[in-house]
Amino acid sequence: MILTVTPNPSLDRTYEVPALERGEVNRASGDRMDPGGKGVNVSRAVAAAGRHTVAVLPLGGAPGALVAELLGEQGIEVAPVEVAGATRSNIALAEPDGTLTKINAAGPELSADEAASLLTEVRIQSAGADWIACCGSLPRGLQPSWYAELVATAHAAGARIALDTSGPSLLAALREQPDVVKPNVEELAEAVGRPLHTVGDAVKAAEELRALGARAVLASLGADGQLLVDDSGAYFASAPVETVRSNVGAGDASLSGFLIAGGTGPEALASAVAHGAAAVQLPGSVMPTPGDLDPAAVRVVAEVPLDRALTEPAA
C-alpha cells in the first residue's frame, strides 16, 4: 500500500482555452474538476494503476467535502483530518501549445491542534504502508520542521518515505534521511543556491542533497528527462513526447510510477519517466492508466550526458 500525505490539498478546476487573452472574455473549449494537491495526485495515479492507496489530508468546508467525494469515486481510500478552514480552490488555464497559467489559493491556516491531528493520522495509517509519499507545500500554521517530524514518524513505523517539497521544508527534512526526494530542476537549484545549466550541474546538486541526508534523489529535468542519483550511482532517462496537453500533475504521476515499480534503481526510474510522459499528453490533471504508458519508448542510461545543456536551465 502507498500512503500519501497532502498537507495543503485543493479542488482544481482546469479550463482549456484556444488562447489566453488578458482583459477579454475567454471561452473554454473544455473543462474538468479534480481533487488536487501533489500527494492527492500521487494517490490518483496509484489508483489508476490498480494499486491500493490511502490519502491522508486535512479537509474543510464544501470544497473539502467535494474533494473527498471525488477521491472516493476514483477508488481512493480517504483518511481525512477535519479542519475549520475551507479547503482551497485552484484554477488552471491550459492552451493548445502546452502553456499553462495557474492561480493557486493559499489555503486554510491550520491550528496547532489540527497540525498535531494530521501527524497523528499519519502515524495511525502508516502501519500498513510500504511507502509514504509526502508531497507539496505546507499550509499556513505548519512550520518547515513539520515534514522532518513526519519523516521521523514514517521511519519509526518501518515505512520508506518519498518527499516532494521544496525550500526550507525540504532542507529541514533532509536531516531525517528521507528515502527519496523528488525536486524539479528549479527546486534543485534553489536547494543548492546556484544556477543549473547542464545535466552535470544537476548531478552535482543531487549529490549535495545526498550529502545532507537524502538517500536518493529523483530529479525532474523538464523536457530533458529525469535523473536518479543513489548509492549505486547516477542514471538518466528520457522519452519522446509528441504533444504536451497539460503538465498539471505530471511530476506526481512520475513519482507514482517510481514508487509502483519499487522506488529504487533504473527500473523504477524508467517507470517514472513512462508515467510522466503519459501524463503530459492527457487533459487537465488526468492520471495515466497502464494503457496510456509506452515503456518501450523510455531510454535509461548509466553514462549520464553530463555536458548536455538543459533545455530550461534553472536560475
UniProtKB/TrEMBL annotation:
<keyword id="KW-0418">Kinase</keyword>
<dbReference type="GO" id="GO:0005829">
    <property type="term" value="C:cytosol"/>
</dbReference>
<dbReference type="InterPro" id="IPR029056">
    <property type="entry name" value="Ribokinase-like"/>
</dbReference>
<protein>
    <submittedName>
        <fullName>1-phosphofructokinase</fullName>
    </submittedName>
</protein>
<dbReference type="InterPro" id="IPR017583">
    <property type="entry name" value="Tagatose/fructose_Pkinase"/>
</dbReference>
<keyword id="KW-0547">Nucleotide-binding</keyword>
<dbReference type="Pfam" id="PF00294">
    <property type="entry name" value="PfkB"/>
</dbReference>
<keyword id="KW-0808">Transferase</keyword>
<keyword id="KW-0067">ATP-binding</keyword>
<dbReference type="GO" id="GO:0005524">
    <property type="term" value="F:ATP binding"/>
</dbReference>
<dbReference type="GO" id="GO:0016052">
    <property type="term" value="P:carbohydrate catabolic process"/>
</dbReference>
<dbReference type="GO" id="GO:0008662">
    <property type="term" value="F:1-phosphofructokinase activity"/>
</dbReference>
<dbReference type="InterPro" id="IPR022463">
    <property type="entry name" value="1-PFruKinase"/>
</dbReference>
<dbReference type="InterPro" id="IPR011611">
    <property type="entry name" value="PfkB_dom"/>
</dbReference>
<comment type="similarity">
    <text>Belongs to the carbohydrate kinase PfkB family.</text>
</comment>
<feature type="domain" description="Carbohydrate kinase PfkB">
    <location>
        <begin position="15"/>
        <end position="287"/>
    </location>
</feature>
<dbReference type="GO" id="GO:0044281">
    <property type="term" value="P:small molecule metabolic process"/>
</dbReference>
